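Lecture notes, unit on binding sites. The following record was shown on slide 14. It pairs a sequence with magnesium ion.
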Amino acid sequence: MKEVSYMSKFDHYFLMKAQDIIEYTLEKMPEIPWDQASIQTKEIGDGNLNYVYRVWDGKGHSVIIKHAGESLRISDQMHVSVDRNRIESEILQLEDKYAPGMVPKIYFYDTVMSACGMEDLSEYQLMRYALMEHKTFPKFADDISTFMVNTLLMTSDVVMEHKAKKDLVKSFISPELCEITEDLVLMEPYNDIKHENNVFPPNAEFVKKELYSDEVLHLAVSKLKFKFMTNAQALMHGDLHTGSIFVKPDSTKVFDPEFATYAPMGYDIGNVIANLIFAYDNGLAHGKDEFCAWCLDAIEKTVDLFVEKFQKKFDQEATEPMAKVKGFKEWYLNDILDDTAGYCGTELHRRTVGMANVKDVTAITDEGKRAWVERLNILCGKDCILNAVKFRTGKDYVEAIRKAQEAAK
Ligand code: SR1
Ligand code: MG
């Protein structure tokens, strides 16, 4: 039989623009009966790395096309492998297996154009923006603790057959994205080595004293950095902040796992807690007492539900005989909780003084209030890092936040 080969504009990688996206969608998703007369697209990306297009028509069909550029949106000087789109697509498929219904569906992914088509979740709101409107989400702690226990414990050596786990380690290693975390999160907030930090000027002296000159803190953070680089504990999301979560009152969806890699579980849990603290900062600056109380409650429940569900699932799912030895589960969980506090601290610091900040804080227009909550983040983060072994329950975080809030005045 004669082989027929079709030439396509999308046989070789190039950075697609809006005008290419419709043609691309029609080619990649022929199974959808698109209404070509009304099909349109809009770039809706809000992150630091990729381009995100919504494509829709007048007959109710829609899809999200996510496309990786060779340089990053946050800085055209930063270049990161476009393989991150494959990693993200495969991880979302895997997470859907471990935490069904908690991530967008992937319809296709394309390693030539480094793009994927995924479920349009337009009826959801990005959690960071919803929190900045001081909306509350009663199911959030329950949902996110389930997501973390399921995706983290189930991909660890406690549960997975070890050779299969090592295959996942191999598939999802992304050295350049790891390097961003290693430098941007776990080093630069403490030494501004590349002079890329964004320090709010009224706090410049405070940052110099509390972050740049504290050698005890530097040693603690160096240990967290080495643990991140060397402890292939679980397939974590790697960027689990409120800009990677969509919410509706009754549902939570996690997306954007391109930083996913094998690293300590506490990195994800710490990120969630720190980002709820940024929401709290915003509520505090705007005098939203009820919202602030909800943030503290969500932090408390997220930690406590994680611990409760983790222990239960560990008992149900552990397959590794040595993980069943008496005392192992408690030792392992305490280590995760130490890491949780430590990485909560580094996330608090890097989003406050590092290169990639969060709108919850930067959108605070009252300078005095912004300076205050930024000092809260810095002091609370230090407490989490330096006293990590004392953070065992949700209440420990709530107390630390209240203490830092007073000390930061
Ligand atoms: C250079 S990328 C900066 C940050 O954006 C991503 O969302 C990650 O959080 C990364 O650290
Ligand atoms: Mg992201």
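Take-home: The first strand starts at residue 40 and ends at 43.
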